[in-house]
Records
---
Amino acid sequence: MIDLRSDTVTKPTKEMREAAFFTEVGDDVYGEDPAVNKLEEEAAAILGKEAALFVTSGTQGNQIAVLTHCRPGQELLLEAESHIFYYESGAVSALAGVQTRTIHGSKGAMDPQLVRSAIRENDIHFPDTGLICLENTHNRAGGAVIPIENMRQIYDIGIENHIPVHVDGARLFNAAAALGVPVTDFTQYCDTVQVCLSKGLGAPVGSILAGDKEFILKARKWRKRLGGGLRQAGMIAAPAYVALTTMRERLVEDHNLAKSLSDGLMDINGLRVVNQVETNIVVVDVAHLQMTSQAFVSELEKEGVLAVSFGPTFVRFTTHHQVSKQDIGRTIDIIARISAVPL
Ligand SMILES: Cc1ncc(COP(=O)(O)O)c(C=O)c1O
C-alpha cells in the first residue's frame, strides 16, 4: 500500500526505536525523566521560547494552550477552517468553556484588519476576546504557509489589545523548511506554539507546547488535570527527541514529492489540483469525474493507494518520509487510469 492519507501514519525509524530501547527513564510527574527533560529543553531552544512541555498529541497541546490562556465565557478568534475549530470535537467549548468567533482566511491566512475588527469592545453585553489562534502550515488550506509578515501584523494587534496569540504549528517545521528559514522567524510572532513531532518528523507519539516559564508552569498543571501526566514517558520522549533533532531538514524532500504529485495530477483530464503546493499536502477536486471523493478514495484503495476524503468532492494526499519517488510515479499512473474509466 502507498499510504498518502496523512503524515501521521509514519512509523518510527530504527534510530527512534533504539532510542526508546536504550533511554534512561524516571517518573516525569516528579520531573525526573531525563529523556523528557532533555526533549523539553531542546524544543524550547529550537522554538525560541523560555520553556516547553511534552504532551501526548497536537490536540492535547492546543487544548492545554486554550485552557491556560482563557477563562470560561471568553471568545476565541480563529480561522474558519482551522484544526482547532474544525477537527477537535468542539473541545474548546466542552473543556475551556469558550466560544469561537471564526474569520474566513485566504489560503489559511486571516486578514489582520478582520482580526482587529473582531476583537470585542469593553461592553457588558460582549464576551472578552481571550485568545487569537493561527495555524501554520494550514491543513485545510492544503498545507499553505502563513506568511511571517501576516503573523507579525496579527501579533502586533494582539499586543496592542493585550490578547495573546497561540500558533497551532502541527506542521510549523514544514513552513520553516518551505521558506528555508529558522522556525524562530515564525515563533517570534506568537506567545505560545504547539508543534507535532509525530507528523512529518515521524516520532511515534507526541507534541510540544512552548511559551514563557510562567505559562508552561500553568500548562503543566492543566496537562495533569487532563490526565496527561505520564510516568516513564522517556520511552516516547527519546524517539521524539530523535525526530526533533534529525528529521527537520529532510522535510523539503516531502515537499518536492508533493510538488511532483501535483504536477503529475494537473495533466490528468477531469482532475483539478485545488491548492498551490507549498509543503507536503496536495488537494484535488474530482467533481468533473462525476464521482464523490469517497468513491474516488475507494477506487484508489482497490489499486493500492490510500488517500482521504477532504469534502464532498475533494481528496487529500500527504507525503512523508515513507513515500518514495517511485510511489509517486505509481500513484500518478493509477490515478490517470481511474480517471480515464467512466464508472
Ligand atoms: C493543523 C493540525 N493541528 C492539530 C492536529 C492534531 O494533532 P493530533 O492528531 O496529534 O491530535 C492536526 C492533526 O492532523 C493538525 O493537522
Note: The chain has a mean pLDDT of 97.
---
Amino acid sequence: MVTNPEQHDLIQTVTADVAIIGGGMVGMTLAVALADAGIAVALVDAQAAPERTATSYDGRSSAIAFGSQQVLAGIGVWPGMAAEAQPILDIRVSDGDARGRTSRLFLHYDHRDLAGGDADAPPFGHIIENQVIRRALLDRLAALPTARHLAPARIAGLARTAGGVRVALSPNPTGVTEIAATLAIGADGQGSPVRALAGIRVTDWSYPQTGIVCTVAHEKPHHGVAHEHFLPSGPFAMLPMVPDQEGRNRSSIVWTERRAPARTMMALDADAFAAEIEHRFGDSLGRLRPVGGRWAYPLRLLHAERYADDRLALVGDAAHAIHPIAGQGLNLGLRDVAALAEALVDARRLGLDIGAADVLERYERWRRFDTLVLMAVTDGLNRLFSNDLLPLRLARDLGLAAVNRLPSLKRVLMRHAMGTAGELPRLVRGEPL
Ligand SMILES: Cc1cc2nc3c(=O)[nH]c(=O)nc-3n(C[C@H](O)[C@H](O)[C@H](O)COP(=O)(O)OP(=O)(O)OC[C@H]3O[C@@H](n4cnc5c(N)ncnc54)[C@H](O)[C@@H]3O)c2cc1C
C-alpha cells in the first residue's frame, strides 16, 4: 500500500513489547510487573493521571486479599500504600430481616484460626482506598524506564498480523498516534473497547441493585473487624479503614440496595442518610457520621467468552466482572496479572515469542476456572441472601451456624477469601516473578 507522505509525517509511533490499554488498578499493576521484569510496556489510558487520582473519581476502598498483597509487594508497590492499609483481623457475617433485625446466628472468622491461634498470623487482607492504590501504582510506574505512560489517550483501532499488533490512538495531547507491539492487552474495564474491537462476545446481566459507597467516621474503634450484614435488599458491608489525618475512626461502607430505593438514599440530606445507615448497622461503633462524598455503582455480572485471542489478552474487568458481595473483583484481576506476567516472563526467558498463541492459552487455562468459581459463588450468595423469604432465611441462618462450627470448612473458605487457594502464580505465593 502507498502511504500518503503527509499522513505519514503525522504518524508518531511508539514501539514496545506490550501495549496495555487501560490504566485502572489492574492495567497499572500489569504494566509495573512487566516493566519491572524488563519487558517494555506502553500503557494507555483515556484519562490523565491527575483525574484518575482526584478525590471525586472513585470513593471506594478495596479489600485487598493476602494473595494480592503478595503480588503488590513482589513488584515493589506495597511500600507505597502500606502505611494507609488497615489489616482485617476478623470478619463477622450476620443475617437481617426487612425490619432491620439481625439474626443471632452468625459466622465469625478470626485471622488466628488459620495459624492454630497464633497471634502473629497474617491478617486476611487489608482495606485500602482505591485512590491510595492508584497513587502508589503511578509512582512506581514513573520510576520504571521500561514503561511509557500515555494519558490521556484513547484507543481508536487495533490491527493484528502474524508478527505483532498496531494500536491506533485518537488525537491526544501526548502526540503519539500509534503503538507497535508484539502483544496488546485489554485492561480497559467492563465496557472494554479492546474486547469490542477484537469481536469477543460476553455473557452478562445487570443486577437489579446499586452499590452505594461512602466513608463514615464513628465514635468507637473498629479493632480491625469487617462486618458483612445480609439484608433483603442486598449485603451491607462495614469495612475498617486506617484513621484519617485528624485521628478519627473510619470505615468504608458498601451498601447494596435495589435501584429505586438507592436513588432515594442518594438524594437524602446528611442527617437522614446517617439515620438510614444507623438503622441498618446498629450502634456497635457508636454514633456514625458520613464524611466526604457518596457514590452509586450499577452492578453487573460479565464474562468474556475468551480471555485470549490472536496477539491479544484481556485482564481484570475487561474479562470478567462480579458482584461486590465478597470484595473479590480486583483480587481476581490481580491474580490475572500474576498469571499473565508469569506466562510472558517465562516465554521471554526461554527466547520465545511472548505474543504466541500457546503462551496466551496458558494464561487463559490458568485463570478461567478460578474466575468461574468466584462468579458462581458471588452470584449464588447474592441470590440466597438478598430476599426475605422465611424458609430461605431459616436455611441460610442454619447454614451460617453450621459453617461456624466446622473448623476445617471454615479454613477452606478463609483460604479462598485470602486468595491463597488453588494453583497459584509465583507472585501470589510471595516468590519473585
Ligand atoms: C461497589 C464496589 C465495591 C468493590 N469492592 C471491591 C473490593 O473490596 N475488593 C475487590 O477486589 N474488588 C472490589 N470491587 C471490584 C473492583 O473495583 C473492580 O474489579 C476493579 O476496579 C477493576 O479494575 P480494572 O482496572 O480492571 O478496570 P477499571 O477500573 O474499569 O479501569 C479501566 C481503565 O480503562 C480506561 N479506559 C476505558 N476505555 C478506554 C479507552 N477507549 N482507551 C483507553 N483507556 C480506556 C479507563 O479510563 C480506566 O482507567 C468493587 C466494585 C464495586 C462496584
Note: The longest strand covers residues 202-218.
